[in-house]
Amino acid sequence: VETALRRHGVQVETRHIDAPAQETGAEIVTACEESGAGLLVMGAHQRTGFREDLLGSTTDYVLGNAALPVLIAH
Known about the structure:
By secondary structure, this protein is mostly helical. Helices cover 45% and strands 11% of the residues.
């Protein structure tokens, strides 16, 4: 995706975030704030029942706390 966007003149920055699962959403939001990002593109998947309750949802956290537009790909 990064290569395709660059070919079309879009400025792209990718980051690898290595954080415990319960902190990933906060780390993503912080990285966006620090970089001055104008759009966050992220993937999402469906968790069910107990797993969702136990782990929470990175996607839910980001959508509730990000101050920039978020594009979710499922």
